[in-house]
Design brief:
84 residues; mainly alpha; 3 helices
C-alpha cells in the first residue's frame, strides 16, 4: 500500500512540474483546467468535428488515389489487351 501512495505522490510532483513549465504557475494551470471543464462539451464538439474533417479528407484522398490507380490499370489493360 505504501508503494501506491509513493507513486501517487511522485505523479503529483510530475504533474505540478509540467503544469508550471507549460502554464507558468499552478494558478494559471488551475484556471485553464477550470475553463476546460466549464466548456467541455464545446471543446469536445470542436475536437470531434476537426477529427471528422481530417478523416473525411484522408478518405477522399485514398479514394482518389485508388480511383486513379484503377483507371490507369483499365487504360493499360485496354491498350495491351491483357488484364492487369
Amino acid at each position: 500500500m505504501i508503494c501506491s501512495f509513493k507513486k501517487i505522490k511522485d505523479d503529483e510532483e510530475n504533474v505540478a512540474k509540467l503544469a508550471i513549465q507549460h502554464f507558468g504557475s499552478i494558478e494559471k494551470y488551475t484556471e485553464e483546467m477550470k475553463y476546460n471543464l466549464e466548456h467541455f462539451s464545446e471543446i469536445m464538439d470542436k475536437e470531434w468535428n476537426e477529427d471528422a474533417e481530417k478523416n473525411r479528407r484522408s478518405i477522399r484522398s485514398a479514394v482518389r488515389k485508388t480511383n486513379s490507380q484503377f483507371g490507369l490499370r483499365c487504360i493499360l489493360s485496354q491498350n495491351t489487351g491483357n488484364r492487369l
